[in-house]
Inverse folding.
């Protein structure tokens, strides 16, 4: 049973719609962040950074790429409404949320930790590009903060996504149980059914007297 109950998305839309809408949002956020992250990785050949910063760049790029990939699975699960796929997506969201927490924490550490001026000069080289200057600068800059902002935003979105997907999986599970119960023929239901549909009249028995009724 979900630890936070919700029956609708934004108090007006079905859970299935919420799953694929949040999946689409995650795909956009993850795609934008992954593109920016991998582009910054390509700059490391000419503008080297300390190993801690390079690790942070790779982790952010991988984390946001996985967000886009898993969100695509979420979009599909919201449309097909298959219990097994929804459960798999729920587990992926939970694992990825933990990864994003670690990526965000390490990004904050690598951004605000002290570094030498010589490292900054080596990174900048002879470039006058504003993006390179912000990438190599100490502390927080817009270039560094872009992925941090996306990770923080994705953490909030994915938390709500997990709550929504958990409730959606629970709903599909209950519906599946109800469908199974409807397909099982109980004795009382058989007695009330019209057995002439099967080509023979219904006959019940008085088991105490052994007589057909």
């Amino acid at each position: 049973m979900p630890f936070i109950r919700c029956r609708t998305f934004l108090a007006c839309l079905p859970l299935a719609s919420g799953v694929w809408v949040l999946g689409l949002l995650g795909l956009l956020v993850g795609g934008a962040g992954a593109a920016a992250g991998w582009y910054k990785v390509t700059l490391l050949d000419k503008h080297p950074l300390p190993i801690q910063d390079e690790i942070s760049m790779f982790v952010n790029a991988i984390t946001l790429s996985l967000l886009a990939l898993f969100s695509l699975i979420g979009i599909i699960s919201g449309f097909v409404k298959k219990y097994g796929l929804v459960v798999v997506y729920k587990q992926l969201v939970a694992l990825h949320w933990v990864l994003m927490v670690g990526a965000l924490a390490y990004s904050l550490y690598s951004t605000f930790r002290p570094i030498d001026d010589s490292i900054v000069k080596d990174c900048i080289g002879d470039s006058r590009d504003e993006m390179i200057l912000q990438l190599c600068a100490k502390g927080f800059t817009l270039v560094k903060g872009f992925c941090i902002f996306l990770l923080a935003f994705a953490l909030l979105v994915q938390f709500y996504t997990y709550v929504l997907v958990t409730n959606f999986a629970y709903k599909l599970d209950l519906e599946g149980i109800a469908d199974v119960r409807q397909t099982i023929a109980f004795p009382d239901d058989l007695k009330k059914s019209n057995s002439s549909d099967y080509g023979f009249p219904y006959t019940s028995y008085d088991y105490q007297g052994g007589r057909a009724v």
In short: The beta strands are 205-206, 211-212. The radius of gyration is 28 Å. Residues 195-200 have pLDDT under 50 and may be disordered. The CA atoms of residues 140 and 201 lie 83 Å apart.
